[in-house]
Amino acid sequence: MRLSNIRNLGVKELWSLARDPMMLVLIVYSFTVSVYTAATAMPETLNKAPISIVDEDHSALSARIVGAFYPPYFVRPVLVTQAEMDSRMDAGFDTFALDIPPDFQRDVLAGRAPTVQLNVDATRISQALSGSSYVQTIISEEVDEFARRYRADPRPPADLALRVRFNPELNKFWFGAVMQLINQVTMLSIVLAGAALIRERERGTIEHLLVMPVTPFEIMSSKIWAMGLVVLVACGFALVVVVQGLMSVPVKGSLALFLFGTALHLFATTSMGIFMGTIARSMPQFGLLAMLVLLPLQVLSGALTPRESMPEWVQRMMLAAPNTHFVSLAQGILFREAGPETVWPQFLALALIGATFFGIALARFRKTIGAMA
User: Fold this and answer.
1) CA 196 to CA 184: how far, in whole Å?
2) Which of 69, 109, 199, 336 would disulfide-bridge 74, Cβ 3.0–4.6 Å?
3) pTM greater than 0.90 (yes/no)
4) Residue 44 gets which letter from DSSP?
5) Mind giving me the DSSP string for 25-47?
6) What's the mean pLDDT in 197-207?
7) What average pLDDT score do residues 78-85 get?
8) Distance in angstroms (rounded) separating the CA atoms of residues 145 and 148
């Protein structure tokens, strides 16, 4: 009877979700548009930054500097006057404005150290941070080559033979798409599980369940398997259709092994969602609570930045979070073609963390149900 109750209650949760159009839109958007845009909209390198140049020298060297800025890092430079430079920066037309002073070439050939002014619009923070070093490098190289009177490619004392593994093209789409998919799995599983419980409370159907011959364990288990199944199916669809199909990201490892690890991760995160649903009294409260939980999970798990670059106490603390182990196994399976003999520690950790969160959430759920009864 217990398994039958869990199955029937889970089917009820699926029908309830199917009648919620906003949740359905959220699921479809999160595993299609969100994955694609997150992987393609934020380039890791400078890309088509607008730049204007005030050439007060009108020399061969200044012409070389002007011609050194070209796509894809910069758009073609616009030659302006000093007055136009200030007005264009104020209007937001340019991210960089370069002012080459008079007699710049003569000072360079005379061995002096002339100064070139670079104005940067820091409101475009992503371009301003990396673009300043790009501009400095370009100017330095052009000045050095002009001073030597020939273009040279000096060989370093020790040469490096680079062999890039797992992403030979250094394509940012490959990493961004998979990491965004992992983030969406965590977010949707927590939101759907918590919303399923709050929806029962807001609609008054939780009282109906209390008078039925079902236990809190059965009610909670039904919500976990139903919402976990929805997210698991959506994850598999996004991985095959969006990541592999639309974005052409090669997935080297076993899809079945990855989905098994995803199921263990969902066991933990849906339990977290149920626990948060017992604390929040309404969907707005649950949304605020979810923001406080999801942001640290996603930022500190290694999905955005390597864990090795974080303080040691943060690394140890995040070992208690399921995201840390899920990110590790996902990268190992999908990028490095890791097998069960490699990722079994992450599987074991997810199972233990999931069981712990399930036990805590069940205790809290029973207490909440008892207070309502």
Assistant:
1) 18
2) 69
3) no
4) S
5) HHHHHHTTHHHHHHHHSS-SS--
6) 76
7) 91
8) 5
